[in-house]
Amino acid sequence: MATLNLGPFQGCARASSLLLHVSDFGSASTANSLSFRNDFIKLRKWESSSSVVLPPRAITSVEDETPAVVSSQNIINRTLEDPKVSRKDLSILPKPLSATDLHSPNDGSKVRVAYQGLPGAYSEIAALKAYPKCETVPCDDFEAAFKAVELWIVDKAVLPIENSVGGSIHRNYDLLLRHRLHIAGEVQLQVNLCLLGLQGVRKEELKNVLSHPHAFEQCEMTLSTLGVMRISIEDTAAAAQMVASGGERDTGAIASARAAEIYGLNILADNVQDNDNNITRFLILAREPVIPGTDKLYKTSIVFTLEEGPGVLFKALAVFALREINLTKIESRPQRQRPLRVVDDSNEGRAKYFDYLFYIDFEASMMEPRAQCAMAHLQEFSRFLRVLGCYPVDKV
Ligand SMILES: O=C(O)C(=O)C[C@]1(C(=O)O)C=C[C@@H](O)C=C1
Predict the structure, then answer these.
(1) Which domains does the chain show, CATH number per domain?
(2) Does this complex have an ipTM over 0.95?
(3) Atom 1 in ligand 1: which residue has the minimum CA distance?
(4) Could you give the CA distance from residue 161 to residue 187 in angstroms, rounded to a whole number?
(5) Residue 191 alpha carbon to ligand 1 centre in Å
(6) pLDDT-based confidence at 308, cuts 50/70/90?
(7) pTM, entire model
(8) Phi-psi sector, 364: left (phi>0), alpha (psi -120 to 50), beta
């Protein structure tokens, strides 16, 4: 059995949590029960005067009356020595944690992930790319997804941040700053848009097409050729659902193949996006930051404001150039708290400048000294600086 390097206090905490959560790890084998006893004995050596609360299940294996709080060494000794207690009875002792138990499965099977839209939305597909076995939780809007993570209703949120054709999704940049979540990862999704209609309908029959405005932007040319009226809906899957429930033969939707399957629609045309490289980048948001490594390619996202003065943005960008750090994204947004800066000049009157927040993504891990030095350098002339997250780079 792998031995954990735990101090006495940690060891005690481990023993009690082991008793409480043992059912999470399945039934105990005899071998496991034996190593459990060894662990207990080790714990007693550290904390000779401590008492451990045993679960009723473990205590009932000893026939004589046992108090709820007992000395762990005593009960182990009595259990081992008592001729009335068979090996079979001992097998119901809780199974100890081993080092491998401490890793949660990496397939995301226990993870609940919030996204904006209905089932079949591209955001749900992105969530499933990140956590293939997760439970996806649809949300009305982006803000609801942020709050669902903050309130522990879900574990993560997956939200779109930019598209290779349509550009940035500004609302999510603003929400990133208003909430205290961390960027724990990114998902790059190839968005294959489909034209959907009711069963038996031909695409030439369509007069109206429902979809998300971003999806419309991504298939401008196809829609112009069809000459249809565009009706904006909150998300592509909701558009598909409305077409299915509306039952109007002249109304179609731009949505995913998954949405077609869920809502029972026909795919009238596949891959209708104007550009084959139609990629939407999503952020994975979590309550806790990722502990960055240097084992793979990492990206760091930051937001900052600058002091007023000539060349300040040039200087800000130089902190990365000087250290050969590649920037992958730069975005500026108005500062809602302080959108205007008034410069008083008695000769020329009062000039008003817009004040901005700058969002930058750069290709380096915060574990790298060059990234840490760049941040320290940037802090010298920024009024505000926040690291939004450091996370592994995703590939399409
Ligand atoms: O409406 C959806 O299906 C979404 O997931 C939203 C969204 C977006 O907002 O960009 C996501 C991916 C596509 O680019 C189109 C729409």
Answers:
(1) 8-102 (no CATH), 112-190 (3.40.190.10), 194-272 (3.40.190.10), 291-392 (3.30.70.260)
(2) yes
(3) 235
(4) 10
(5) 8
(6) confident
(7) 0.73
(8) beta
